[in-house]
Structures are given as structure tokens and as C-alpha cells.
Amino acid sequence: MSETSSRKTRTETKFAEYVGSCVVEECCLDEKTWLVYELLRSLKDCSRRRAVTLKFSTKGVKVYDADGVTLLMAHSMRRILFSTCRPSDSQFAFVAHNPGCSPDELYCHLFVGSQPCEARVLNLLLCRAFQLAYLEKHPEQAESEETASGLEGLPEDIPPLPSLIADGVSLSVSALVSFRRAPFQGELIPDKMADKKLSVPAVSPACSPTLVRKKAIRNKVLRSGAYRSFNCDSQTHRSIQEKLNRGWRSLDFQVGKSFSLSETQDILTEAVWSFSGIHRDSSSSLLRKDILGAFLLWQNPNSSKSWSLSVRTPFGLQGYQIDRNPNGNYILKHLQNEFNSIEALIDHFTEVKGELLCSLNSARLNHCYEGEDFVRGPGSSLHQATGKRVVDSEHAEEPLSLRQH
Fold it and tell me: pTM for this one?
């Protein structure tokens, strides 16, 4: 296996306790997420648990026994519909379709961590795996280097900055004025003038570069800064150069960087909330199809103390602005609540709707979901679309052996 392929299929291992699997009723996506949330709430005190090992990758999720040897069940990425969690009760769950079952038959698989942050990390890992799998499937929607580094919007043809120092030319006023006395180079003389004798007017001894310059300024032929050194860039060049410098520094930082699940919780959180790696327009399009309350968060490029929060509501995407006030706290614009971190703000509006159109949701939809393997044929109950079930031999799902109702 190549190094690239190995990097793409790298797994992240976590430990948890498996509670069980329950059938999710057939309904729309928003109702499914609500039913699953209520199911998690009702099973928060369930004592029937089993220690397991979870392995996440962009190919799917595999569940092993506590020793990590015996495979108990596996779900390829295209069979998982969405992931969610309830950190308050350390619960993590995902909803998936089992091969061989009806397309409308989905199961919720519930796990519990030893503490709230573990459930949050499990959910972040799977949500990030959704995004990375989407990037692998749709590389054309990846965020460009120019966008990531702040170079987007620069003109394509930036005029080159003059570089006379590199050619060994003096930048003094005398040298610049005396360019008219420089000898002609052979290649600069047209062929039809090659045989003619060039007459160069004599220079008056009383004439000096300074006098020539002052006379030209008085006659308004030249401006006073006409002989300014070329290393003094104009404001336009300076702004472009500064932006380029910032861009190259960002690109240098990203050289050799490959997106991975092996990140800290803070990095995973920022990546999932900002749809890291996916182009901004594509991220907004995906958010419109996501779960009710799903959100997209990114920092405003023109301010280090302002963030944009886009939320999927029943009425479409709704935008909010997060600002940092002089006290160093974070607030939603036009609202009074203050929080000591963005994470605290998100957690608050996840539990409480407040002035928002809907509460925020930690659940995320898998946009690579392909649950329907079967189609109904005439005169029969259920027929497979291609005569046989579609199975990825390398990442085939195993039947559930831990199902507890």
C-alpha cells in the first residue's frame, strides 16, 4: 500500500462502553434526530453496558471487544447517516443502515464515555471523518491554497515591482537623471539606423542633474517625486506585497500538512465547526442540507475579534455575529449574554434556544450517506438493484452481535 493510501486510511482508536442498538422509526431527518435525542435521554441510566474499542477512519467505524481483537460490528462510511452526542450524560450515538435490511430501517447505536469530554470527542471524531470522507469523494470542493492563506481576491496580473538594485544600478538622483547620457547598446539601435551617425547634443558645463530636475518641476513636466527611489513602493504595491507575504507564510505553515483524525480536541472542534478544508461556498451548501441546528463558524478575515456563525434553521440559514467585548468576553451581537469562551457560548445555545430561531445542535449529517441498496420491483416485495447486494469487500459491515432492545 502506498504512503498516500496509508495516510488516508489511518484510524483513531478510542475506548467506550456499548449500551445497545435500537430501531429508529421512519420519518424525516429532523424528526429522526429529535427521536434519537429523546432515546438517549431515556437510556441515560441504563446499566447494561459492555466495554468496547472504537476505531474511526474515513472508511467507517469498527467496534471491537475490550481487547481490540474480536470484531463485533463494522459500518462503512456510506452506511452511517448522522452522528450525535449528549455530553451532559456522556452519551455518543450514530445512526446507520444495516446491509440486507429495508432502506427505511435504521439503527441507533449508543455508547457511553467515562466523562462528558470523551463523548464529545467521539462525536467530533466521527463528524470530522464525515468531512474528510466528503473531501476524498469531492476533491474539487476542497478549499484552495489561495483561500486558506488569504490570497483570494488578489488580481491575477500583479505588476512586477522594479528591481534596479539587482542590476547594480545606483538609485541616486544624479544617476537617474544621467540615464540620458548612457551609451546606446547595439541591440537597441534599429537596423535602418545602424549605418547612420548619431549626434549627441553637447552638455553644458553649467548644467547639472539638480538644475535639470528643478527646471522640469517648474515647467510641470515632472512631479517632485519623479526621481524617487524605486525601492519606495506605492501604496498599492505595499498592500499587495503585505498580503502576499502573509499568504506565503500561511502556505509555508501548511506545506506537508495533511488532514487527520489524530488531532487534539481543540483542533478537532475547530475543524468540525468551520468545515475545515472545504471551500466556504460548498460548506454553506452542505449546511443547508444538514441537521436542524447544525452550524458553521469561522473568523471574520478583517477582524481578530469577530466571528460569523451560520445556523441551519427551519427557515434556512441564519447568520449571527460573535464579538469579543472590551472585557474579553464573547457575545452574540445585540444580545446581552456574555461568555468567557466561544465554546461556552456554543454549549449554552445548544442547551437553551434563547433568542435564536432554534437551539444549536452537535449532531452532523454524513453527506456521503448511501443507504438505499435496494429498489422495489414489480410483482415482488423487495429486489436488489443489481441482483446482488453491494458490498465493499475491504470494508464490509458485519451483522450486529451486540443488539440489545
Answer: 0.66
